[in-house]
Amino acid sequence: MELYINEFIPVTAVEGPGLRACLWVQGCSIRCDDCMVPHTWDRKKGKVADTSALLQILRETPGIEGLTVLGGEPMDQAPALLPFLEQVKASGLSLMLFSGYTREAILASGCPYKAAIIDLCDIFIDGPYVKDLTSFDRPWVGSGNQRIFFQTERYRHLENNLHTIENKVEIRITDEGEIAINGMMPKEKFIELQRSFRKI
Q: InterPro entries per the record (predicted)?
């Protein structure tokens, strides 16, 4: 089964605890109002991942402690995503994953692939982005309804210390001059940053 992705970054310091790799899947059935990344909605606009190559990169990248998976919506591709994530965890890396579905809705769906993905996570973040509840008081999430589940002891020490973690963004410039931004910030500031680069 093919896994459609939007982007993969081997090393980032803004998508979860420590240095991590980050994978954005392509395709989303939720499509939150005022979503920051609507370009990840249409699965047809993604690329088919070579998961063996991604695993090789993960194993050969020094200093990273885990993988963060966002979207798009990861649970929309649960059957294709699960085998890859099992190998990620088997290699000793931690797993942090975002879903716009609530944990209760995922488990109530009865899908064994989705339930297994939740079980693999060290940190699982659930809930859609809700524009009226926009809040950047906590790291990694954009609205107050979203919940952060620390499911293993690996990051349990962070649970009561989220106030010490700041949201940050990274700006990458490729050799071809392409600019990419990732991390968490208010949408208006993100748009302002985009515009400032277009003027350069």
A: Aldolase_TIM, NrdG, Organic_radical-activating, rSAM, rSAM_sf
